[in-house]
């Protein structure tokens, strides 16, 4: 079969090119090539954020595709700190890094794909790189990196400041939320009665840095003109949420009541002269006889009763009964 195909190629192509054509055809049919890609698909998984004092696990995965693994190395900021070589004894080696005395690698839990860090501190934030090297036949090397942040979470809940006990319609609600001593500064969001507020009502968080502690404090201000729909059941509930990456989330909620305007109340004060009829004897004048006194008493009770009604004063029922009783039976006091 090979001789026949070469013969036809010689007839079609003249000159020296027929040799190249015949050779290429023979290679394709007689000895097919074996494709060995070797080391590829190196990928690293570095946690984005880890709470200070917790353990951290860094992972590095790869496909050898026919190659043999020569070594896996981990770097912190370009300096080697860990090496795994399966053909050596011991296979795991740890290298100290100057200035990072708080870097502790658990050898028994680390291998060619996993790197176990114990009780990380804030100094260990930064870039970590995994370098994978293959042995024969490809001798390939690949380096992949990822960043890790060590987080110091606040020791207390966020605090809402400046909230009054009561607000009226049209008042301005202006309160602050403070989340102290963290790194990085907490992200602060506001909600009112369970609904997240738009950014137009929130002043962008102000970050205060403590150079001695190396920690940060976040401050956010909410300013909102209150309307009827802001009061649910006669109250408003303002909530502040502080969060850092996916490892810290705390909320604080304060509430205030609605102060309703007082209704206009009629004056309840009645002058002394208004309660005294005009024909009642004044001081120093001679009093009338008993008949006149009876008439004056009845007139007085009637006059007081009418004056109270005219003044829109709510007359107690007991007083009404007394006046009516006096008028009915002409009782002399």
UniProtKB/TrEMBL annotation:
Compositional bias annotation for Polar residues: 266-279
Principal location listed in the UniProt entry: membrane
SUPFAM superfamilies per the UniProt record, alphabetical: Immunoglobulin
UniProtKB keywords: Disulfide bond, Membrane, Signal
GO annotation, cellular component aspect: membrane
Keyword Zinc part of the UniProt annotation: no
Annotated stretches, region: Disordered: 255-293
Cell compartments where the protein resides: Membrane
Region forming the signal peptide: 1-17
Secreted found in the keyword field: no
Ig-like domain location: 32-145, 158-225
Membrane topology per record: Single-pass membrane protein
InterPro entries referenced in this protein's UniProt entry, alphabetically: CD80_C2-set, Ig-like_dom, Ig-like_dom_sf, Ig-like_fold, Ig_sub
PANTHER family: BEAT PROTEIN (PTHR21261), BEATEN PATH IA, ISOFORM B-RELATED (PTHR21261:SF8)
UniProt protein name: Ig-like domain-containing protein
């Amino acid at each position: 079969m090979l001789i026949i195909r070469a013969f036809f190629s010689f007839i079609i192509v003249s000159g020296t090119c027929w040799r190249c054509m015949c050779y290429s055809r023979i290679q394709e049919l007689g000895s097919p090539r074996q494709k060995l890609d070797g080391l590829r698909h190196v990928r690293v998984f570095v946690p984005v954020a880890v709470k200070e004092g917790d353990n951290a696990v860094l992972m590095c995965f790869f496909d050898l595709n026919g190659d043999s693994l020569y070594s896996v190395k981990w770097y912190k900021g370009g300096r080697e700190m860990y090496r795994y070589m399966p053909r050596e004894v011991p296979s795991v080696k740890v290298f100290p890094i100057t200035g990072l005395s708080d870097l502790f690698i658990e050898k028994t839990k680390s291998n060619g794909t996993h790197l176990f860090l114990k009780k990380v501190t804030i100094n260990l934030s930064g870039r970590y790189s995994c370098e994978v090297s293959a042995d024969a036949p490809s001798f390939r090397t690949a380096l992949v990196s990822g960043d890790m942040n060590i987080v110091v979470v606040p020791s207390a809940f966020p605090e809402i400041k400046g909230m009054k006990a009561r607000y009226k319609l049209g008042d301005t609600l202006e309160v602050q939320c403070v989340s102290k001593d963290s790194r990085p500064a907490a992200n602060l969001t506001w909600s009112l009665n369970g609904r997240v507020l738009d950014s137009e009502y929130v002043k962008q968080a102000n970050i205060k840095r403590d150079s001695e502690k190396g920690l940060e404090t976040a401050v956010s201000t909410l300013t909102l003109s209150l309307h009827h729909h802001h009061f649910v059941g006669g109250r408003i509930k303002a909530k502040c949420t502080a969060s850092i990456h996916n490892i810290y989330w705390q909320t604080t909620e304060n509430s205030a009541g609605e102060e309703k305007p007082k209704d206009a109340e009629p004056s309840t004060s009645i002058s002394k002269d208004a309660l005294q009829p005009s024909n009642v004897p004044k001081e120093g004048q001679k009093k009338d006889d008993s008949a006149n006194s009876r008439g004056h008493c009845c007139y007085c009770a009637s006059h007081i009763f009418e004056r109270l009604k005219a003044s829109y004063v709510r007359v107690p029922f007991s007083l009404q009964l007394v006046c009516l009783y006096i008028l009915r039976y002409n009782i002399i006091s």
